[in-house]
Amino acid sequence: MDLQQRISAFSKLGDFLSQFSNNNFKKNDDIPFNDLFFDGFKHQIQLAEEHNGWFTKANIQFALRGWSDLLTEENLSNWLNHYKLDDIHPKTVAVVMAGNIPLVGFHDFLCVLISGHNVLVKPSSNDKQLLPFLAKYLEHVQPTFKGKITFTNDKLENFDAVIATGSDNTARYFEYYFKDKPAIIRKNRNSVAVLTGNESEADLKALSQDIFTYYGLGCRSVSKLFVPKGYDFDNFFKGIYHWHPIINQAKYANNYDYNKAVYLMSEFEMLENGFLMIKEDRSYASPIATVFYEYYDDLDALKTKLASDKEKIQCVVAKNFLNSEIEFGNTQQPELHDYADDIDIIDFLLTI
């Protein structure tokens, strides 16, 4: 199987996913193997919702829509055209996946297979319905993938390299356990937004997407704001208000009530609008339904701080602040070349 065949297979998977990216799933008779897989994937989406209360239909659809948009022959070819993938000697790469948002490990899965290697997946117990089903679809579209994709819930064995994602605590375990293997080990990261007070209502409305999509559970979710002294939070609250129906989601509401009670009992100062709390805090990782903020005096000093804390930060949302900044509203729409932790996975896979 050459690179073009692999690209074609994932492009067909993108076409398949396009049927599930809107509220009303619409079957397309031109999709290969649709009679075999369409209803089955609808069922897997339902199972994922039932298994994990954070995986609402809307969040699953958002993830599927993102991958459907990315998995085109043009996008895949443009992404891969500067790598030398013609002479790969296939190795087995273990991928230990997180389960914080739907299909969060798909990019690792894609990178391993598209580069010509075999993948050994250890899925998260929180996200185990969708990817195995999509892998079966890939095997039907391109039968050469059979034998190259393995899922396991047991101890990982017989692999040559590993990509593992977890918390800071599990990362220490991963670093010890995989110390003799080529590895990418990911730890906790969060995303931040730098505000100046000159943002338009449209900017702040877009920022709300970065905060609330996936209930703030992703590493690309903005969990902290940097604001100038004297910043008027009224404009911020106005800009995000259209997200107020989020409080009707039971798990989110329970977290909101619990964290609010903790803050009140601890006599912490915070501001809230009925569905989000903001609290001054130097930490980057905020609880669900909370965004931390920190004041800054000087933008150059803030650049220095963010550079020194880069191992804790996934994305910086801003306007005309950093060369690497992300526009308001775009953190949850990464491109294929937007590698987690800025570690080029394809380059890594070319070295094993």
TrEMBL record:
Transmembrane segments: none annotated. Pfam families: LuxC (PF05893). One of its GO terms (molecular function) is acyl-CoA dehydrogenase activity. Keywords: NADP. The keyword NADP applies. One of its GO terms (biological process) is bioluminescence. InterPro entries: Ald_DH/histidinol_DH, CoA_reduct_LuxC. The keyword Disulfide bond does not apply. This is Acyl-CoA reductase.
